Amino acid sequence: MLRDITIGQHFPGDSLVHRFDPRLKLVLTILYIVLLFAASNPLGLALSILFLAVMYKVAKIPLKMIGRSLKPILPIVLFTAVLNLFFVTGQGEPLFQFWILEIYPEGVRYAILMSVRVMALIAGTSLLTYTTSPIVLTDAIEALLRPLGKLHFPVHELAMMMSIALRFIPTLIEETDKIMNAQKARGAMLDTGKLTERVKALVPVLIPLFISAFRRADELAMAMECRCYKGGEGRTRLKVLRCTRQDYISLAVCLVCFGGILASRLLFPNF
Amino acid sequence: MEETILTAKDLKFRYDPDSPVYALKGASMEVKRGEFVAVLGANGCGKSTLAKHFNAILLPEAGTVLVEGMDTADEDKLYDIRQTVGMVFQNPDNQIVATVVEEDVAFALENLGVPTDEMRRRVDDAMKMAGIYKYRERAPHKLSGGQKQRVAIAGVVAMRPDCLILDEATAMLDPRGREQVMQTIRHLNKTMGITVVSITHYMEEAAQADRVLVMSQGEVVMEGTPKEVFSQTEKVRSLHLDVPQAAELRDELVKAGVPLPEGIIDTGECAQALYELLK
């Protein structure tokens, strides 16, 4: 049952978006989030969403994937929407009044804008994880954080830990599955009983898992030493991230779009 | 050919300096360049401990370990030694670092700071040699045990070591995986001239080696060609080890009064001898 869990939400493909340099992709995603908040008028938001839709089209990611990534955050979206709906007060007459609840037109406007913005934010960041494998993303983060290394920030160690964690997730999931089966074979009730009972029943699963994780860590450390691991200094990489001409063109196109969306906010502040 | 590549002399080692229990009590051995040596021994006889001395994972309490003339106690030579002697462990899952096969094979070269172009070449060579080139873009956790272990071997071979130490590298594999790994190792030994020291529990594997060492209680107690060692069935048994099935059969037949020549250790030889006899 645990084996069905997928790691990250990588959706392999060979589109322009997939091949785009992960560092630039990461930076653009961050810029896109900023843009969503900077260009907060309806027109700006509409254009931002249009841009995202085009990107999904280019990446050939089925639109139902967006639905899947939005599902878990739907409660949050509804919650913020309801809060905005009732607590934003306007100058004019309330649209609706009942007991202490008042809804103003501004409230409705804010509720809609806020939910759309949050959903666009999630869809935007999902595009990054859909089109970039976790390991490439780790490389990108390492490359982008590298300047911090000068301030003695352990960039290489951080990236190494992330990639080892990614490497061991499937191994440990498989192991959890085995341990659960072993405990079930000894009469452990993992799926039945009250919540507190079920949580307690997990202890005999977690303890062996932890012990084995430490053993694995020990062996892995030894195997790494055997292969001359000595930290990040003087290390070279098999795959070096290189920006091609295509990457720069894509970057320019995206930046122009972002600029256009931002300009629309300034040119038509009333929309 | 007769050059000594690994030398261990009177090694003493204990894991806990406060306890009187020694894992190695004066073990000595030598390995010649290009040799295929199998090390046998019951659990806890110190064979893994001995193996870990050869690339300075462990340092002896007394005695010396020389790798191509370099003393493992010399810290300046540490990375030269580890590059000369590659080590493959029992559990393939716990020695694969990266999430893509080819990146794992490149791990050692990345650590050594090999330039990218040369790295690409060496990684491809190593993967072809271990027969995993076609899986180069796969995730290691989706491979079978034998394939994973060959990824681990390729990761070590990419360093171009002179010597490969296998610490029960086939113990966790199914028969087919074990055969694949043994084939790869024999190939590395024969065509590349890589010295192989294989620690194993499988007598059939040991029978294919050039030389067999048997350890017991922290010392090397028997040494010789597989024929010499396995013909001494009683002595091998007294060390809590099995002998290959063919040797066992020959022994039983001799006991039952069937005249069979000495030194039969594999199935083919045994069949041949029986054929001669029955003709």
From TrEMBL, chain A:
Chief location: membrane
Q: Name one GO cellular component term.
A: plasma membrane
Topology term for the membrane: Multi-pass membrane protein
Pfam families tied to this protein: CbiQ
Q: What's the protein name?
A: Energy-coupling factor transporter transmembrane protein EcfT
Species in which this protein is naturally found: Faecalibacterium gallinarum
Q: Give UniProt keywords alphabetically.
A: Cell membrane, Membrane, Transmembrane, Transmembrane helix
Provide the gene name from the record: ecfT
The UniProt record lists the keyword Cell membrane: yes
Organism superkingdom: Bacteria
Annotated PANTHER family: SLL0384 PROTEIN
UniProtKB/TrEMBL annotation, chain B:
Q: How does this protein sit in the membrane?
A: Peripheral membrane protein
Q: List the GO molecular function terms.
A: ATP binding; ATP hydrolysis activity; ATPase-coupled transmembrane transporter activity
Read off the Gene3D superfamilies from this record: P-loop containing nucleotide triphosphate hydrolases
Instruction: Tell where it localizes.
Output: Cell membrane
Return the PROSITE patterns for the record.
Answer: ABC_TRANSPORTER_1 (PS00211), ABC_TRANSPORTER_2 (PS50893)
Keyword annotations: ATP-binding, Cell membrane, Membrane, Nucleotide-binding, Translocase, Transport
Identify its protein family.
Answer: Belongs to the ABC transporter superfamily.
- What's the protein name? Energy-coupling factor transporter ATP-binding protein EcfA1
Name the species this protein comes from: Faecalibacterium gallinarum
Instruction: State the encoding gene.
Output: ecfA1
